[in-house]
Amino acid sequence: MAIPAERIAHMYDYLASATGPTGWIAGIHDGPPETAIGLHGRGVADILEERAQFRRSLGLSRTDLPAVRHFSDANQVFLRDGWTTEATCLTFEASPCRSWHWHPCCNSIQLRAHGRLFLVDPGRFSYEQREWNAYAGQTAVHNTINLNGW
Question: What pLDDT, in 10s, does the model give residues 9-18?
Answer without folding.
Answer: 998 899 889 8
